[in-house]
Amino acid sequence: MISGFFRNSLSCEGTVITLLLIVYSSSAFSQFKGQIDISKAPLLKGHYEEEYAFDKPTDSSQWLKESKGMHVSFGSEDKLYFQDGGSQSSIDNLLGRNWLERRERLNVQIVVWSPDTLRQVYFKLNDLKGPGGSTLAANNITLSVVHYVLSNFPYGGAPVDCSPTPYKDVFLMPDRFETVDPKTTRFDVNGKTVRPVWFQLNIPEGQMPGVYTGTIDVYSVNHKATLDVKVNVQSNVLPKPHDWKFRLDLWQNPWVVASHYDLKPWSDEHKVLLRKHLKLYADAGW
Asked: Given CA atoms 54, 150, 15, 228 in this order, what sign does their dihedral have?
C-alpha cells in the first residue's frame, strides 16, 4: 500500500482511477474501520475484482436519527469515507476551498448517503457563471465514484513495512475510482451505507479571473439534491506539470490494464490504452 493522504488522481485498471493513500498510527485491532470476518471474504482470482458489499454499520443506532431520503454534501479531501460510515450530517454543504490559480486543479469529495436504498443515482453537471458573462464550462469537471476493495492491512494499522500482515481479518477499503459519465453512469447506494465521489475541477489557462458560481444536481429515482459551487479564479497561472519542482512517486501496473481488457500485454491495443492512463500521471507532475 501507499502512505499519505487522498489527493490527486492516478490511473489503475481499465477506466479505473485510484486515489488510495494511507496514514498509519498504532491502535487496537478491534478499532479499525471496515473490518470484516475473513470467513466472509471470497477467494481472489485475479487483479480485478468486483466490489464487495458486506460491511456492516459500526453503530446502527446512529442511522435511526437520520431522516429518510437522499443526503448529499461536499466532504473532506483529507478523509476516508468507509462504506459503513454512518450518517454524514455534520459535513458542510459548501465547497471549502474557493480560490484557484489558472491551470490549477481542485479535488474534493462529494458524499452520498441514506438510511434507505437509493436507486439509479446520477449527476448533472452545470456550467459555472462568472464575471461579464464568462463561463467555466462543465466539461472541466470530472467525477469519479469510489468503490471498495478488500485489504489485508487496515487504515491506521502498524507496522509500516513490507513484512507479512499480522492481521487475522480483512478490511473493506475505499480505494478504486471509476470515472463517471454524467450522461450514462448510474449506480445504487444501499441503505445505511455511504458512497464517496471525487469531484475534480480543472481551471483552463485562459480562464477569465473572477468569482464563478453554479450548481451540481444529484438525482435518484425518487430524490433530487443540489450542491452549490463557488470558486474564485486568480490571475496567476500555475506552471505546466513538467515544470513543477517536486518529486512524485506513483505506482502503476500495466499488466492490470491488459488483463482487464483481455488484451495481449504490450500489444498495440494495450499501448493505446496505456497512453490514456499514463497521461493522468503526467498531468499530476510525474
From this structure: positive
Checking if the pLDDT of 96 tops 70, the result is: no
Q: Which residue has the higher pLDDT, 163 or 271?
A: 271
pLDDT of residue 91: 54
C-beta separation of 181 from 105 below 8 A: no
**Nearest partner of 24 among 213, 226, 160, judged by Cα:** 160
Query: For 215-257, how does the pLDDT look when each residue is reduced to its tens digit (9 = 90+)?
Result: 999 999 999 999 999 999 999 999 988 888 777 777 778 888 8
pTM: 0.80
User: Are 142 and 124 contacting, i.e. CB atoms less than 8 angstroms apart?
Assistant: no
Take residue 262 and report the three cell numbers written for it. Answer: 483481455
| The predicted structure's pLDDT at residue 24 | 32
231, three cell numbers:
470558486
Residue with cell 431522516: 67
Say yes or no to pLDDT of 18 above 80.
Answer: no
CB 111 within 8 Å of CB 81: yes
Say how far apart CA 44 and CA 190 lie, in whole Å. 23
Cβ 155 vs Cβ 172: under 8 Å: no
- Is the predicted pLDDT of residue 200 greater than 70, yes or no? yes
Q: Please state, in angstroms and as integers, the Cα–Cα distance from residue 91 to each residue in 77, 167, 281, following that order.
A: 12, 32, 30
Contact 107, 60 (CB under 8 A): no
Helix, strand and coil content of the chain, in percent to the nearest 5, comes to 15, 35, 50
Q: What is the sign, positive or negative, of the torsion defined by CA atoms of 52, 58, 61, 63?
A: negative
Question: 225 Cβ partners below 8 Å, 6+ apart?
Answer: 70, 71, 72, 217, 218
| Residue whose cell numbers read 445505511 | 192
Determine the Cα–Cα distance for residues 80 and 198; give it in Å rounded to an integer. 11
Q: List C-alpha distances in Å: 198 to 15, 17, 139, 260.
A: 14, 10, 15, 22
